[in-house]
Amino acid sequence: AKALDKLVQEIRALGRRAIAIRCDVSKSDEVEQMVQRVIDEFGRIDILVNNAGVVNITPLVLLTEEQWDFVMDVNLKGTFLCCKHVLPHMMAQNWGKIVNVGSVNGREGMPGNVHYCCSKAAVHMLTDALSKEVAAFNINVNCVAPGTVWGTPMVDWVMGLMAPEGGDKWEAYLSFCQRMYTFGREQTPEDVANAMLFLVSEESRNMTGYTLYVDGGHKSPM
To answer: Which of 63, 88, 175, 176 is most exposed, with minimal Cβ within 10 Å?
Structure first.
């Protein structure tokens, strides 16, 4: 909550309007209330970025139903619910941009991560199918699929598992990138944000249904 409040203050300092809303995207009533609050505050919704995501590393034979459901509820159901409740407003104004967040692991599997990979592959297909459903309303639906992005709580947790005991997470991360990605360098939130900015701009007006990979070039199976 403190991070959200800080971000709102930074945006307002630029002379822009901003609000922060805490919401469980897997709960339809909470998503509906969030969307209505945005409409009440701003009058319309032009852009939706479905960025909520979770992961845990567990081999399938040890995976519980609760772990499976949690990942699916946030990554896939959350994307569905946010689209469901925002789209009527975009359709009414005959314009909108939706950017879903997939993953390189939605295209290429990773051991110990079957549930996460499945959830992100489904987000990629949701993007494709939904784009065809709402094109008549001048709504673009695309997806950004990041690789392993440094500076996020999710990757910090994963690198904590990968680093040797007492080892440095940054060194573990760089080693991972050098093994997995063509460029062999770190990926930042700004790299992903720049791709999103393109997809919500009019420069991408004739792109819809696509998944744009921002992963530094994926080398080989994991």
So the answer is: 88
**CATH number of the structural domain 45-214:** 3.40.50.720
Which of 145, 110, 154 is CA-nearest to residue 217?
A: 145
Return residue ranges of the chain for CATH 3.40.50.720.
Answer: 45-214
Task: Find out whether 44 and 95 touch, Cβ atoms under 8 Å.
Answer: no
Which of 106, 107, 90 lies closest to 98, judged by CA?
90
Residues whose CB is less than 8 angstroms from the CB of residue 201 and which lie 6 or more positions away in sequence, other chains included: none
Given 116, 173, 181, 213, the catalytic residue: 116
How high is the pLDDT of residue 17? Answer: 96
Tokens 């569905």 belong to residue = 80
CA-wise closest residue to 34 among 15, 21, 19: 21
Mean pLDDT score, 3-27: 95
Query: Can you give the pTM of this predicted structure?
Result: 0.89
Burial 21-43 (b: 16+ CB within 10 A, else e): eebebbeeebbeebbeebeeeee
Q: What pLDDT, in 10s, does the model give residues 125-182?
A: 999 999 999 999 999 999 999 978 776 777 777 777 677 776 778 777 778 777 777 8
